[in-house]
Design goal:
Layout lengths: L5 H18 L3 H16 L5 E5 L5 H9 L4 E6 L2 H10 L6 E5 L17 E7 L7 H12 L2 E12 L7 H20 L6 H10 L4 H10 L13 H10 L4 E8 L2 E7 L7
Parallel strand pairs: 1-2, 1-4, 2-3, 4-5
Antiparallel strand pairs: 5-7, 6-7
Helix pairs in contact: 1-4, 5-9, 7-8
Length: about 260
């Protein structure tokens, strides 16, 4: 496998961020809202934070820019994106990448945690999990978080099962914004980014590994898109307060809080 140089990795991550912004017109605003909540909700300068489905670490590094004393464990199962993140941010204080599949029972035991987690964040990742996997993941997550710990998920979560007209309007707001972004000259979309990455000799072996590991037969696509599915799974895992903290169309930050006292 070719050695991935930091500058090359940073260039690929910059391209990743640009194509992501094509689908998420307020991506930076979403990041800011998540980090604001971590800063205000953990109320400590050095929170331990898990970033689930971290990709190349875009959210993780922004969080550390704001909270340089934090410890962030960035978790993903995609070998190519993890390699980019590790190469680009090697030596970054407080940042550690971890290869773990959120669908595997006991995945938290592989993270090397030495204290309870203060906050868990995720962006545009957890909708890939089917509902049973989502429920199991939240239950395991609650077991490693401190009382009063925060869960913050930025994703496209729909209300079609309870408010179909509103759901259609939320989706329309997002789709129109996306069309405007690409009409204004976005250089590449999601598929074009992955095709280009696979064609880079330095990333080809990682792309092949990804095809075997991540994009295999068990990965069917968007599985859990309804807001009610995530809310019910969080409540079943013991989170006491669950609600939307920030929203643009059907792009929202869902926030959940573990109770300070155990439920009886």
């Amino acid at each position: 496998m070719s050695i991935l140089h930091p500058e090359q990795a940073r260039d690929w991550i910059a391209r990743w961020d640009v194509q992501q912004e094509g689908y998420l017109t307020d991506r930076e605003a979403r990041f800011t809202a998540l980090i604001d909540a971590v800063e205000a909700g953990t109320d400590r300068p050095d929170p331990l934070v898990l970033d689930l489905g971290c990709g190349p670490g875009s959210l993780s590094v922004r969080l550390l820019d704001r909270l340089p004393e934090a410890e962030v464990v960035a978790v993903d199962a995609d070998p190519l994106l993890l390699a980019l993140g590790r190469a680009a941010h090697e030596g970054r204080r407080g940042l550690r990448f971890a290869d773990a599949d959120l669908r595997d029972p006991g995945w938290t035991s592989t993270l090397g945690l030495d204290r309870p987690v203060d906050a868990v964040v995720s962006t545009t990742a957890l909708h890939w999990l089917a509902e049973p996997e989502l429920r199991a993941m939240f239950a395991e997550l609650a077991g490693v978080m401190r009382p009063g710990g925060l869960f913050l998920n930025g994703d496209h979560l729909e209300v079609v099962d309870v408010a179909p007209t509103l759901a259609g309007l939320e989706r329309a707001v997002h789709e129109r914004a996306t069309r405007r972004r690409f009409a204004a000259g976005m250089p590449e979309d999601w598929r074009e980014w992955w095709d280009a990455a696979g064609a880079d000799p330095a990333l080809a072996a990682l792309a092949d590994e990804r095809a075997r590991k991540v994009a295999g037969p068990a990965h069917h696509g968007s599985e859990s898109l309804e807001l009610s599915t995530h809310v019910a799974a969080l409540r079943a895992a013991g989170f006491a307060e669950v609600g939307t903290l920030w929203q643009n169309g059907h792009d929202r930050v869902l926030c959940a809080v573990l109770p300070v006292e155990p439920r009886t």
